[in-house]
Amino acid sequence: MLKQKIIWERQVQRIVDFDASDIVRPFNSQSHTWKLNLDVLDEAQAEKELGFRRLTDMDFTRIILDNKRGTRHVENRLLQTASSTRSHRMQAFGWDIIQRIEGGVMEFVFTKKFSGLNVHEILQTTLANDLELELCRKIKAETLRLQVIQQLGPNAFVFVHDVSSTGDIGIFRSVVARFLIEDTREFQLNTSALSKSSGLVTGNGYVLGTHSVITDKAQHLSDEELSGRLAWADVSLSVGIYDVVDPTTGETYQYVCWAGRTDYCSEEHAQRNASDTVQCMLRWEMLVIAPALNLVSTSN
Q1: Which one in 1, 56, 139, 148 has a CA-CA gap of 20 to 30 Å to 192?
Q2: Of 255, 260, 289, 288, which is closest to residue 274 (Cα–Cα)?
């Protein structure tokens, strides 16, 4: 029990210790420092409308651990069974893309290798952009609503996220925790020169996690919920970026891995979510990664 408590405290401290002084958002080639402009839903309204009760530090740490276990499980399963009939694998724009759909559940792993990225800045940029509606829409175009309902530290938030859909359900809603933490892991780069001399490489970097928060029953149901036009989606996602040293050449690369699992109620909506997720990843590369690489190229 004592060991578990120490692990929790360390995880929470990793979040709290981050310096929030400068979340940079390079949507263009110029570097600026921005202050977050959050749309906040007050506690009473969050409880009434969403059934949300404030999380403790221990609650948040459990979410982090659940997210890590869940996304790693998805990664391992998809990478090992990518050739199965339920999985779809393709390469696009340098990304290795694997997706699997079963019923309303969509699982995915997207990986790509870059060089010249500052892993911490890229993910702080991503976190900041994901917390403001207009910036979020540049990458997640289907976003309708984005309101923060709790902040536990400079890099730890809980927010409500509504996205539009078509068909029988018009809106999918999630209450999610989002957090940025340090991470070290071993993984296999099957298509990289890194794997020629060794099956495993060690990466040091950061993970931006997103994980659904369990809420109580709302005190007041909206017309959309009563009519069945609004449904709740379950999500567990991570974006990890790691510095990896090539054991053959000694060069440092950045290994990017998007992974996760979503439940959007039906196969039709899961298929649409699969397409939206790929588009979101490609917009993220264009609007966040590409400007950072241009800055590196210019400085050199």
Answers
A1: 139
A2: 260
- Return the pLDDT at 281: 97
pLDDT given for residue 21 in this prediction: 32
pLDDT(197) > 80? no
The mean of the pLDDT values for the chain is 84
Q: Which residues, other chains included, contact 67 with Cβ-Cβ below 8 Å and sequence gap of 6+? A: 209, 210, 211, 236, 238
Rounded to whole angstroms, the Cα distance separating 206 from 198 reads: 23
CATH classification of the domain holding 212: 3.30.530.20
Give the Cα separation of 49 and 41 in Å (integer): 10
Q: What DSSP element (H or E) covers 261? A: strand 252-263
For 57, the token pair is: 């530090």
Q: For the residues 66-90, what does the mean pLDDT come to?
A: 87
CA dist 19 and 4 (Å) reads 26
pLDDT in tens, 173-183: 999 999 999 99
Expressed as residue numbers, the domain containing 227 is 2-299
**Cα 272 from Cα 137, distance rounded (Å):** 17
Number of domains in the chain: 1
3-state secondary structure 115-178: CCCCHHHHHHHHHHHHCCHHHHHHHCCCEEEEEEEEEEECCEEEEEEEEECCCCCCEEEEEEEE
Q: How far apart are CA 150 and CA 176, in angstroms?
A: 10
Residue 25 in tokens: 């958002």
In the predicted model, is pLDDT for residue 267 greater than 80? yes
Contact 237, 210 (CB under 8 A): yes
pLDDT for the residue 2:
52
> Which burial class, exposed, middle or buried, applies to 228 when counting CB atoms under 10 A from its CB (0-12, 13-18, 19+)?
exposed
Alpha carbons 241 and 113: distance in angstroms, whole number: 9
Q: Which single residue is written with the structure tokens 């931006």? A: 208
Written as six digits, the tokens of 189 are 């780069």
Residue whose token pair is 């040091």: 204
